[in-house]
Every structure is written in C-alpha cells, then in structure tokens.
Amino acid sequence: xxxxAEVREPVLTGERITLHRVHKTYSxxxxxxxxxxxxxxxxxxxxxxxxxxxxxKSTMLKILAGLIDFEAGEVAIGDQQPQEGRxxxxxxxxxxVLMPWRSVRENVKLPFDIAxxxxxDVEDRVDQLIELVGLDHAVEKSPWELxxxxxxxxxxxxxxxxxxxxxxxxxxxSALDEFKREHLGLEFTHMHEYMGKTTILxxxxxxxxxxxxxxxxxxxxxxxxxxxxxxVDLPRPRTAGLVGTSRFQEIAQEVREALVGxxxxxx
Length: 267
Ligand SMILES: Nc1ncnc2c1ncn2[C@@H]1O[C@H](COP(=O)(O)OP(=O)(O)OP(=O)(O)O)[C@@H](O)[C@H]1O
What we know:
Layout (H helix, E strand, L loop, with lengths): L1 H4 L11 E8 L9 E8 L4 E5 L6 H8 L7 E6 L11 E4 L11 H11 L5 H13 L15 H13 L5 E5 L7 H18 L2 E5 L3 H7 L2 E6 L4 E7 L14 H13 L9
Parallel strand pairs: 3-7, 3-8, 5-6, 6-7
Antiparallel strand pairs: 1-2, 1-4, 8-9
Helix pairs in contact: 3-4, 3-5, 4-5, 7-8
The chain binds adenosine-5'-triphosphate.
Adenosine-5'-triphosphate binds next to helix 2.
C-alpha cells in the first residue's frame, strides 16, 4: 500500500451516523438486545465498539447496514434511513466471503457487476483498488490460493469499490495471526486517515480499538447498552510505537475498567 504511506490532510467523505433511542428485540418477551442506544458519530470519525459476547455489537452494525429492522428509535446515515443508503455502506466481516470461481480482480469487480456498471472507468477503478490494498502481484489468483490476510485485502477492496461514505467492520482482522492482524489494522488506519470515511469497527481487542479509533464505545450486555464513551486523544497518523506510551495504556485501562463486571470475553 505504498500510495497510502505519504498521506496528506484527511479528505472528509464520510457521513454522520446517528442512533437515537434505538431498541431491538429478536424475540417477544425476551430482554432487548439493544436498549435505548443513543450515539452520534461525526463524519470521518473511526469509532470502535467493544463489549462482551452477545452485547449486540453485530446487531448494531446490521441495523446500520439496513439488513435487519428494529422496534423503536431512529437511525440515520447522513439524512438517509439505513435501507435507503445501502450503496453508501461498505461492510467487511471476519471471513472474507469471496466467490471461489472468481479471480482476485473479478472479486473486486463484483460490486460494479451487481450495480450494472462497466467500461474503462470501472476497469481503472478496479486496478486502483487492487493497488491500494497491495495485491497487484496477485490479480489473477483464485481465493483458495490466497493467505487469510490477502483474502481480507480483497474483501477490503470490494467494500471500498463503490466509494461508500460509511465503513462497517465486524471483527475484520480477528481470524488473522497477531502479526498480520496488527499490520493490516495499522494499514487500514492509515487508509482511513486519508479517506475520511466514517467507520465503525467491532473488535474484541482493546489494544486494536485504541490503536485505530478516535473514540471507543464500550457496551454492556443483557440488555445491550452503552457503558462508556472513551475519547482516544493519540496523535495521527498512528504508529506501532504508540503502544508503548503511557497514554495508550491509560486509555486501554479506562476501557477495561468500564467493562469490569460485564460478562467479558475481552482480550
Ligand atoms: N437472528 C437472530 N435471532 C435471534 N437472536 C439473535 C439473532 N442474532 C443475534 N441474536 C442474539 O442477540 C444477541 C446479540 O448478538 P450479537 O451477534 O449482536 O452480539 P455481539 O456483541 O456481536 O456478539 P459476539 O461478540 O459474540 O460476536 C445474542 O444474544 C444473540 O444470541
């Protein structure tokens, strides 16, 4: 990702995300999965959601992606409802979910095919995306020939294809080994720093959340609710060396303490 290293002022292309008194229950009579969630995420902000298993992190992302409904409250991406703005949302999951019969290039091109877009502009954009995620040496490979990290790079390029204003990342690096996870996390952070897409990252790793985010939202479970909203006032661009600073450790500790007493599977 050489093009990302020399980075300039952030280009704000993100949308504001607003959740107001959002309430979600999957089964009638059960405790709500999300209760009275109020959250405002500024355009271009990178916010992490952390919290114990089952506190509703993925549910919140699915609501924002317009994939599931909710009973009460208001959700907006810019001035659009989630269902209206689906094309403006890029989604990345723990597993890359690539089409096995399509090459790297064809997988990155998929969103354009689905949207019925073709032509030289599309071909150029696909080339750019592949270069951006550092896969120019692997364009014709099939998914089964790729490492886990390479598969996630394809997934990232695909999520960025239609230039979404919002990125939703559901534990995108958690299936990778620790070295690759840190490396790809930092690369994504640098990409975010110059693209300015409003981003929500779900992670079980507090250090990953601190390294990448502007703010960390800690959620408690049963019912899923916000227990802390922690600002990460570390300088950008973020560098691996920040982990050793006392400020990094203080922020991580603040998040940990907010989750004490919550039934945690936090790293
Ligand atoms: N489709 C569904 N139908 C019924 N219950 C569901 C459904 N999806 C999730 N749940 C329940 O809602 C709760 C929150 O699930 P969710 O996946 O949002 O949690 P999470 O915080 O992302 O958990 P994890 O960290 O383990 O991924 C859990 O109790 C889960 O069992």
